[in-house]
Write a structure and sequence with these properties.
Elements lengths: L50 H12 L11 H10 L13 H7 L2 H10 L12 H12 L2 H4 L5 H10 L3 E2 L7 E4 L12 E8 L4 E6 L8 E6 L3 E5 L6
Antiparallel strand pairs: 1-6, 2-3, 2-6, 3-4, 4-5
Protein name: CHAP domain-containing protein
InterPro entries: CHAP_dom, Papain-like_cys_pep_sf
Keywords: Signal
């Protein structure tokens, strides 16, 4: 069973979270949850990229969808993301509509085949990529935003479809590594770019922050691995 990363943006430090009954999966945030027994810890774990097989599953299931045009604009997608600000997880790291939606989605059935565990394990898993996926689904832009619970595979989906780069644009999906790495396998967190502040920072909307909420944040671009560019309607 391969290890995969689910992530949370830290206030200062980052820690791990897990998915599945027996395998610890890497996450970053306020807690580490081995979802079989909701074990809490503050330790950081390094995920094995092991994304080759998982990456292939994601591409095969979703690459064709990525070419589908959508009617949603970047402004509409960001407006929906902004409406979620303040949504918070419970004490177990779950209870959000983003996790509940993902756990019952067809994509969850696909990703548990890749990652192991069961769909219900997503109910308490770190949810930054699930938040991005939920916004894509509910804005009508899923075919352009993608859907996954694993940030690394989500990023590789954009790159595999030729929609990856280093320029912040409103509505782009931004992927972070807190140590400044530009390696996709080092990605620890994901959100939406709201705007480029022109001073080496970007304003973002992110789920699963260090506060366990959807929040608007200002992040240094030095922590950005890269950006995924959905093909939004004009």
């Amino acid at each position: 069973m391969a290890k995969h990363r689910f992530t949370r943006a830290p206030k200062i430090n980052y820690a791990g979270a897990a998915l599945g009954a027996t395998v610890l999966l890497t996450a970053f945030g306020g807690h580490t949850a081995a979802l079989a027994d909701t074990l809490q810890t503050g330790a950081q774990h390094t995920a094995q990229a092991a994304g080759i097989a998982g990456h292939d599953v994601h591409e095969n299931a979703s690459a064709q969808r990525s070419q589908t045009a959508v009617t949603a604009t970047a402004t509409q997608v960001l407006a929906l993301a902004r409406q979620q600000i303040g949504t918070s997880e419970n004490a177990q790291g779950g209870g959000t509509k983003f996790q509940e939606w993902y756990a019952t989605s067809p994509r969850a059935a696909e990703t548990v085949k890749r990652d192991g565990g069961a769909p219900r394990d997503y109910l308490n898993a770190a949810w930054c990529s699930m938040f991005v996926s939920w916004v894509g689904e509910h804005s009508g832009a899923r075919s352009q935003i993608g859907w996954d619970a694993y940030t690394v595979t989500h990023a590789k989906w954009f790159k595999a479809n030729g929609r990856w780069g280093s320029t912040p644009k409103p509505g782009a999906v931004v992927f972070f590594a807190w140590d400044g790495s530009k390696d996709l396998d080092s990605i620890q967190h994901v959100g939406f770019v709201e705007k480029d502040n022109g001073d080496g920072t970007i304003t973002t909307i992110e789920g699963n922050t260090g506060n366990g909420k959807v929040e608007e944040r200002v992040r240094p671009t030095s922590q950005v691995v890269g950006y995924g560019y959905p093909h939004y309607a004009a």
